[in-house]
Amino acid sequence: MKRIFLIVLDSVGIGAQPDAPAYGDAGTNTLKSASASSFFHMPNMEKLGLFNIEGIDYHPSCETPMAAVARMQEASKGKDTTIGHWEISGIYSGRPLPTYPDGFPAEVLDEFTRLTGRGVLCNKPYSGTDVIRDYGEEHVKTGDLIVYTSADSVFQIAAHEDIVPPETLYEYCRIARAILTGEHGVGRVIARPFTGTAGNYTRTSGRHDFSIEPPSVNMLDQLKENGYAVIGVGKIHDIFAGRGLTEYTYTQGNEDGINKTLEFMDKEFRGLCFINLVDYDMLYGHRNDIDGYARALTYFDSRLPEILTRMGEEDLLMITADHGCDPGYTVSTDHSREYTPFLLYGKNISPVNLGTRDTFADIGATVLDYFGISPQFQGKSMLPH
Questions:
Q1: Beta partners for 231?
Q2: pTM of the full structure
Q3: Distance in angstroms (rounded) separating the CA atoms of residues 171 and 176
Q4: pLDDT, tens digit (0-9, with 9 covering 90-100), for 63-72
Q5: Phi, psi of 62 (to 5 degrees)
């Protein structure tokens, strides 16, 4: 019974791409920064071959790695979750999604206010934790929604759960998603519920992303059309706007994501289980928390044996990332334009080094190749034949 478990370690980049300076990210290296922490310990990923990947010269490699490995280069114009996951699935994005360094225009916010019946606070790029600190009290008093963005293509709405229940906040996000099309077609509309009292506001795990519809046929579509299961764990459903999935579940952090992955490994299905583990990016990368990032990587590594021991004879495990978010890069707290790792493990997979690939889409092509499907996108399979 052929199954693939594709795990995206959100933002675990492994070094600046050649075009990183154009994105303001020269010299970034997420994994290297995390590895400098005393809390960094990844012996199981080392055994798979993580440190055998091209360009990683700051940590001992493994003489007899267990997995095939590659360094993935992003071809699309971007460095965010949506474009990264889309390219993994075979979608090339030839232009960056729109960003709003000066806030959203009146034409967008006026329509949003008309349809929600609520005013807007902030409307500028802001840290997610700082914005609720600075605008939370006014939001609670007025009921106006905190709307903000970042260096990425996002329209974020923060609201206190006592003022705007999460389901209502999600409906407001759907309204914004319907407005933000065409030239204002941002990658994601993000719900950011929070709780607490003034001076002690805290974001909850009720975040939801409402992504723009994928623009072309991709790996998920092709698997589903051919009768295979396509299971999304974590943000996958939101990133693809629900398209191409046969089943999905949300998660509350990495621990929950790993636990739910293990639950799916105990089930019988033919197809793909596509997992996003978001804590690296959301909790640590954007906050320049090197030790926190290192602890999160160490935690994943400690759980990796549980995943490996559950693998069947025909199962494949793929581990990769969607972009970087270097916690040691103090110039910025945003995503970074980096290469990403790729590890392919299975009981019948030869542990070869596949070098540096031209596009993340090679991952999608590899998935389809394993199920005997020809990709309807540019990408080359990495399966050793």
A1: 247, 273
A2: 0.89
A3: 9
A4: 999 999 999 9
A5: -110, 130
